[in-house]
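So, can you check this record?

>
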Amino acid sequence: MHSRKQFLKNIGTIAAGLSWLPVDRLAGFSRPSPKKSIYFDFHCHPGWSFAEHKFANNSDTMLTQTVSDMKKGQLTGGFLALVADAPLIKPGPNGIIITRKYAPGDGWTEYKRQLKGLKEVFTSLSIPFSTDLSNLNAEQEGPFGYIAVEGGDFLDDQLNRIEEAYQDGVRSIQLVHYAPNNLGDLQTSGTTFNGLSSFGKNVVKKMNELGMAIDVAHASFQTTKDVASLTQSPIILSHSILQMESDRPIALRAISKEHAKVVADTGGVIGAWPSGFNKSFAEYVDNIQRLVDVVGIDHVGIGTDMSANFKPVMSSYIQFPQVAEGLTLKGLTGEEVAKIMGGNAKTVLENIAKSRTKKG
């Protein structure tokens, strides 16, 4: 008969062995768990086709499967992002290619078209939308979505359109995407404004007034610093990861430690991004830990970029609980894991809503 000491030693050996397994193979070791805390995705495009620049219809089997996977993965909710510059870009072998510029008015027309498509698809699939950033909770029957727009191109330099978008239900705007626009500089293009433009500064102020989440994903370091110095509310960086080797795929989209700290210092949260920048799912979990080590446990979340990611190492929402498992195996406590999986999202969205500067 083994002694208690030997038993505990054996258990420790088994746990250490599991930590070396690829996380996507850990599902077989999963135990049924009680009702989990919040699982939130800071950035996703379920149902969106970059090739066709439109949302799939409700009979599309891939979209139906994605929604099913969201439920199996216990997703509470997330930001469902329209792609403001979709007609201007196309996927290439090493990332996104810019094809042209918008003519005046075309960006707003495209936004309205995509908004209609998104609402039709998710209404038909009985996925509710929310417009209240304060209502994220573990009891919410998921998945549900907040509407976001990736890129401020759709504003056409008209500040009043932010309020129109707010009335449409939009609760987050990512200031820049891949096609250069008039709000500020981005990571993957040359310098035009040396950070945030004058119009971009007015956009930040207006979004603060309305209590909208300002997303600085894809923004240059200087643009992010300008937003952070101006905003009256926390900001989010919905999907990125810390820099590693410069020759990694889409390495320009990774951020420095200083960049990450600028976001965290506003009380903001960074969505850890499972793109092909990571070599494996297991390395993705390692990179979440690296973010925590740099900015602290209160400033890291998950931003999948599902289903428009570049060679993702997380390709299904079924893997969402496996992220939690992987973080647990790395030694994080249950409370710490819960913060990353969605607790920090709840806190930052509540704080953004509370900091709304518009009267009434």
Summary: The two ends are 71 Å apart (CA to CA). The first helix runs from residue 4 to 18.
